[in-house]
Design the sequence.
């Protein structure tokens, strides 16, 4: 295998075994994160390093049976510095290279990986090829690193095809032997290799001795048109509730000029029923804001009207975020507000499943975890 760089892009190309056995092409987009960091002796902190380090530490890359091209972002970053502008860059890069590659692997810090995966899932509509985000909890140069397995398996899944079609046709996160739907995942642990979970949606692929694909849980976009959306409007604010929250805090958030507010509620979407609080919400809705109810619970769904403490919210027009993650809600709002000037259109789509990000039991939109798991047990039987 020969390695080379051109225009900031590094290519590892294996000679084809035969003319009939065409190898898959995978584009690796390196944005930074712990996976490629080194310990800066001077400051004693982890700082991003260039892709050479990864290649040096994973000699197995040269044994993979596909062509690998690496595009390194400039500058490479700790993902806490991620931004909508960089999401646009990533999505545009995928669109520009869509026809030339069979799959995409994005190496990314784990801190905001679930935000990026969610954002990309909305920006890349009708995707028929895998876009897999991965990274690691320990730098690739560390002896006990989780980076090697994460990288190699992410690449393997990104190149998997059957009858000419990619097995995975959506934006995912691969971490610690599991492939998750990107917009259903969140970082839940900063100390274990198992950094991500998606409790409201089943795992798409489990990596053990074999790679076990749960096909019935995955999106099938065959035949759909692939479209790129790059308009993002970040005019949102967040109101996280807690017992004892003051009028001043609630007012400050609701009176900001944001187009939408994510209300982080208790349990199945409940809030205090204090009159001053409900009045302030009503006023915000009257002024044209969308208020989206997302539960502070990580498992389960918002069910407006189940308790009296959420019935008032439903009556005044608070939107249900159903079982969406906070990360999906934030990025979906940015995407919808970029697409639609009209607040009612944003509201309608916010409650509608568009990329497998939510289960709306009322409309039957989206598969619930229970449905998929029961289908899966049939499938696995
Ligand atoms: N702070 C790092 C980042 O998100 C953590 C990681 O990569 O896991 O870039």
Sequence:
């Amino acid at each position: 295998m020969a390695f080379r760089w051109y225009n900031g892009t590094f290519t590892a190309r294996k000679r084809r075994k035969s003319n009939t056995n065409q190898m898959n092409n995978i584009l690796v987009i390196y944005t930074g994160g712990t996976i490629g960091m080194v310990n800066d002796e001077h400051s004693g902190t982890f700082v991003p390093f260039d892709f050479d380090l990864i290649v040096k530490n994973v000699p197995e890359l040269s044994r993979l049976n596909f062509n690998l091209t690496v595009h390194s972002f400039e500058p490479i970053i700790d993902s806490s510095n991620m931004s909508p502008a960089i999401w646009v860059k990533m999505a545009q890069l995928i669109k520009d290279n869509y026809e030339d590659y069979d799959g995409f692997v994005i190496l990314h810090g784990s801190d905001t990986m679930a935000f990026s995966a969610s954002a990309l899932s909305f920006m890349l509509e009708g995707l028929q090829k895998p876009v897999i985000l991965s990274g690691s909890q320990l730098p690739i140069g560390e002896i006990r690193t989780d980076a090697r397995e994460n990288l190699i398996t992410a690449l393997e899944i990104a190149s998997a095809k059957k009858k000419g079609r990619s097995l995975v046709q959506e934006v995912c996160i691969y971490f610690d032997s599991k492939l998750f739907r990107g917009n259903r995942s969140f970082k839940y642990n900063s100390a274990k290799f198992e950094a991500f979970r998606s409790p409201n949606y089943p795992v798409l692929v489990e990596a053990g001795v074999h790679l076990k694909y749960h096909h019935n849980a995955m999106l099938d976009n065959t035949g759909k048109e692939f479209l790129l959306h790059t308009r993002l409007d970040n005019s949102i604010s967040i109101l996280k509730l807690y017992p004892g929250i003051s009028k001043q805090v609630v007012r400050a958030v609701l009176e900001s000029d944001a187009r939408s507010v994510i209300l982080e509620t208790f349990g199945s979407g409940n809030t205090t029923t204090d009159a001053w609080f409900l009045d302030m919400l009503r006023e915000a809705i009257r002024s044209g804001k969308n208020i989206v109810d997302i539960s502070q619970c990580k498992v389960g769904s918002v069910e407006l009207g189940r308790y009296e403490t959420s019935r008032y919210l439903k009556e005044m027009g608070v939107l249900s975020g159903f079982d969406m993650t906070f990360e999906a809600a934030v990025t979906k709002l940015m995407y919808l507000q970029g697409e639609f000037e009209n607040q009612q259109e944003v509201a309608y789509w916010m409650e509608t499943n568009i990329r497998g990000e939510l289960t709306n039991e009322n409309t039957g939109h989206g598969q619930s975890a229970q449905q998929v798991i029961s289908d899966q047990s049939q499938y696995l039987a």
